[in-house]
Amino acid sequence: MLKIEDLTVEVNGKLLLHDVNLEVKRGYTNVLFGPNGAGKSALMRTIMGFSEYRVVKGRILFNRTDITGLPVDERARLGLGIMMQRPPDMSGIKLKDLVKVLSKGTNPETLAKNLDMKRFMDRDVNVGFSGGEIKRSELLQLAAQNPSLYLLDEPESGVDLVSIEQVGMTIKGLLEEGLNCPGESCEKGKSALIITHTGQILDYVNADRGYILCNGTVMCSGNPLKMLEEIKSRGYEECIKCRLMK
Ligand SMILES: Nc1ncnc2c1ncn2[C@@H]1O[C@H](COP(=O)(O)OP(=O)(O)OP(=O)(O)O)[C@@H](O)[C@H]1O
């Protein structure tokens, strides 16, 4: 579904990512680990098509189509959706109106009810929202958009220990949509690439493959739960060794 080949990216002449190779197959959930400043958000934002990230080498394929040069709105139409780490406040735009524009046939009220977001629908998007409320607002927008590939940048950050269950179960529900439908053409659920530091989200979502990004490039890939254990016990120093062992 998503294939990134030798991707090298700069912002304002500064190299942020180099020679990144990564894949997310249809129906798979992959995880992106890495220390602060490694370039994880930059990679996600580049995949989504934010214009300040300039691809100087390599390409991004989505469902075998080269989307490297496409603007963000066209990527969204093709089925890419992002939950940002720090989404902007949108003064003057009510959450209910944004959700209405995003939803393709799904009733915004039903979505809001399921996410316990009804009381936020008349407020301006993210303005004055708490950290956890911002995450739920982002999830509501994604649910309305109904993408086939979810790019989730630290979905658990700023969420308290009780609300993490709500956020985790919502993401699980969104990703498993379609899993039980009959027939050969049925999609094997949705696909996702998730950035996580704590791994809390993996208590709710089954992850298939993990990648470790260090210094702007992918150092290792493998079993995400084993990688998380390794990172917790030995830190990211091991990334470098892993690279050397390749
Ligand atoms: N638009 C930009 N202009 C200048 N520098 C940028 C821009 N976007 C990202 N960077 C820089 O690129 C580096 C990688 O940032 P990024 O946000 O991708 O890291 P990250 O791996 O997601 O870190 P964290 O885990 O702390 O969120 C940082 O040094 C950051 O300051």
CATH topology: Rossmann fold
What is the CATH class name? Answer: Alpha Beta
Helix content: 25-40%
Biggest β-sheet description: 6 strands, mixed
Low-confidence stretches: 179-186
CATH superfamily: P-loop containing nucleotide triphosphate hydrolases
List the helices and strands and how they pair.
Elements lengths: L1 E10 L2 E11 L4 E5 L6 H9 L5 E9 L2 E2 L5 H7 L1 E4 L6 E5 H8 L5 H7 L9 E2 L5 H15 L3 E5 L9 H14 L14 E5 L13 E6 L2 E6 L1 H11 L2 H9 L1
Parallel strand pairs: 3-10, 3-11, 6-9, 9-10
Antiparallel strand pairs: 1-2, 1-4, 4-5, 7-8, 11-12
The structure holds adenosine-5'-triphosphate.
Adenosine-5'-triphosphate binds next to strand 2 and helix 1.
Description:
This protein has 246 residues and is an alpha/beta fold. It has one domain: P-loop containing nucleotide triphosphate hydrolases (Rossmann fold), CATH 3.40.50.300. 33% of the residues lie in helices and 28% in strands. The protein is built from eight helices and twelve strands. A six-stranded mixed beta sheet has the order 6-9-10-3-11-12, sandwiched between helices. A four-stranded antiparallel beta sheet has the order 2-1-4-5, with helices on one face. It has a two-stranded antiparallel sheet with strand order 7-8. Helix 3 (95-102) packs parallel to helix 5 and helix 5 packs parallel to helix 6 (163-176). The longest helix has 15 residues, at 131-145. The model is unreliable at 179-186 (pLDDT under 50). The structure holds adenosine-5'-triphosphate. Adenosine-5'-triphosphate binds next to strand 2 and helix 1.
